[in-house]
Amino acid sequence: MAENRIFNFNAGPAVLPLPVLEEIQASFLNFKGSGMSITEVSHRSVWFDDVINDAVARTKRLLGLDDKFHVLFLQGGASMQFAMVPMNFLPEGKSADYVNTGTWSTKAIKEAKILKKAHRVAATSEDRNFAYIPKNIPFDKDAVYVHLTSNNTIKGTQWAEFPDTGGVPIVADMSSDIMSRPLDVEKFGVIYAGAQKNIGPAGVCMVIVRDDMLKTIPDNLPSMLNYKTFTESNSMYNTPPCFSIYTIQLVMKWLEETVGGLAAMEKINQEKAGLLYDFMDSTDFYNATADKDSRSLMNVTFRLPSEDLEKLLIKEATAAGMGGLKGHRSVGGCRASIYNAMPVEGVQTLVDFMKAFEKKNG
Ligand SMILES: Cc1ncc(COP(=O)(O)O)c(C=O)c1O
Hints:
The protein has 362 residues and is α/β, with parallel strands linked by helices.
């Protein structure tokens, strides 16, 4: 580990691969011989063209996206997508299905409601405080899309497999698990992800759109809220968030060239999550909050016997060089976010610390 760096378990903004940060540092003052940093070059320059085109090409290779998919970089975060999706893809006279698995799905549904768009909540896990992913969902076969949140950052649940929607395209908020595993992309009409968890810094949202989804976009949308504006301009209708896109490019390069692709990444993610869950399953002192078959490989949420012990664990872990273990403010408890860039060594260090903590306080 580089000097003075901690194991960062924050939920987002979150840990980035160290080689990526080092490359940013090394090339910061003079990017590719331009005599400028990446935050100073024009987005209309050959330097930035190379960055964005390479970020798109690597994203397509990693996910196995063919030419019918557009890879876009938008601002407004994933939260803007909650509104843009129904504005663009939910025409008058049609309805969409939503699956509610927690805070972020609830927010997506709220935007469809505000826009007075016809929609249905096809399934929800609210009855047990969103501790599980619903199964056997009766989807509407005439829905224009099925919206779901692939990984629930706050509740620590994740879709292990995506549901059979009978051919209705899935629109997925993958903010907290994009690029963590290979995908069967044919199921998806749209994938979006705020970058600041698994693929880059805050300030940009990656959006993957299947070309046929663009056909029904109404022509009365403001330009900045219309996906076609971005498909037609290589995401550069206006000034894009250049530094964030550049960092994504480097993270995609790390995934391809150092990790060896998404299947290799998934194996590492399974190993890391396995270390934590297996340990917690071996003791009554720590309790993972999600149902076993719905557990997230990215955000491991857990409780201790009391809130005082939770506070103490977070305090002592921080002192020992492990940051960001506090649960989301809406749910309390503890949460270890173990995104792609968290090394196995970081998770092992946490497990060793938790064992020692239990011995002392259990
Ligand atoms: C699953 C999920 N969706 C959406 C959001 C909101 O993202 P943003 O802050 O980019 O709008 C978050 C994160 O904080 C999230 O975890």
